[in-house]
Amino acid sequence: MVKILFLHPDLGIGGAERLVLDAALAFRRKGHEVAFYTNHHDASHCFAETRDGTFPVTVVGDWIPRSIFGRFKAACAYVRMVYAAVYLAWYVIPVEEPTLIFCDLISLCIPFLKMAQGPFRVVFYCHHPDKLLTSEGGILKKLYRAPLNWLEELTTSQADKVLVNSKYTARVYQDAFQNIKDIPDICYPSINTEFFKVTTPMPLKEVVPVGTDKIIFLSINRYERKKNLQLALRALEHLKHIISESDWNHVHLIMAGGFDPINLENMEHYIELTDLAAELDIEDKVTFMKSPKDVEKVSLLYNCKALVYTPSNEHFGIVPLEAMYYSKPVIAVNNGGPTETIVNDVTGFLCQPTTEAFATAMSKLILSPELGERLGEAGRKRFETKFSFDAFTEQLDGILTRERQVISEARAIEFEQKKRK
């Protein structure tokens, strides 16, 4: 058994949070001890594993502001993570003596973690280069981002091992960080199927006030503009014009998304989407849900006809895996991570990010119920062979084994050097 520490900026609800929790579950399945350190943790807005005591969670640096007058959010996030890393280096690592420190999202913490003495290795999981996620801006924005972008590349290179979530992200990583010569390892995320196995889905009417005769299309994504959730609404409106009235009467879209009340964009975009539904005159065809509980999410996946996944250039995408586990076809954009999880016309549909393309894919599933069943069954088989939690666990354990071997070799060299003296 070894000790593994996770350092993550905000243990809320999202794909990055689900990834680190699943990694922790995978390590624990192999008998290792795991603990989380984070800048922020809200028990009312988090996954169950960090709320029910599955893992110990220590909050460090939450008193540091997230922004300054609504600006400099990236700089503040960097400061918060550096503070947490220094805390670990001074007070935690010397006492806990971890073998592995697993961090993600903000690489600036890496050199500060390495201030601590001891034979540990730092693994950095790069979901996507942060420098590519920021929006375009004027000269002041570029001057502000320039040192942050330089620091991101410099500090990422100091990780002992870098993991990425897909071949797509690996290509983006190498293009973004051309001064880093080491090639990252691809570690496909998975999902905690043990939770799904022991969770009994609720009847749909106990989750949302929708009739049992409805054909449910489901969208699960955070309420963020980059997720392109408007595409699902516009596709639904277009669907009305290409299927019969009787079929249209049975169609319903559920939009379930991560919603943090302290996140201004979540609040603004939720209002934008509800306003758009009203403008398109499909209010009675859409149900909006904020931060569904885990059992509610499982119930939605179990009861839906298909998943509508709208982000473009998504780094990987966990939700399509969850839909595939429940034998549901996935309609997604033909770029980014979904091109590695979804096989077009075999487990779902990969479409151009247009209203017409998504609506056409939805209509195929309405007009041919057996097609949806066939695609869903193929999706479940693909999940089991390539993206199962067992495969994820073995991959992570292999990484840990190699890193422990490096530590052992370093200790042997150090011992020999001392002997010679």
The strands making up the biggest β-sheet line up spatially as 3-2-1-4-5-6-7
Low-confidence stretches: none
Measured between the Cα atoms of the first and last residue, the distance is: 33 Å
Number of strands: 13
Integer-rounded radius of gyration? 23 Å
Write a concise keyword list for the protein shown above.
421 residues, alpha/beta, seven-stranded parallel beta sheet, six-stranded parallel beta sheet, 16 helices, 46% helix, GDP-Man:Man(2)GlcNAc(2)-PP-Dol alpha-1,6-mannosyltransferase activity, GDP-Man:Man(1)GlcNAc(2)-PP-Dol alpha-1,3-mannosyltransferase activity, EC 2.4.1.132, membrane
Tell me about this structure:
By secondary structure, this protein is an alpha/beta fold. The protein contains 16 helices and 13 strands. The strands form two sheets. Strands 3-2-1-4-5-6-7 form a seven-stranded parallel sheet, with helices on both faces. Strand 11 (306-309), helix 12 (319-325) and strand 12 form a beta-alpha-beta unit. Helix 1 crosses helix 16, helix 12 packs across helix 15 (369-386) and helix 14 (355-367) crosses helix 15 (369-386).
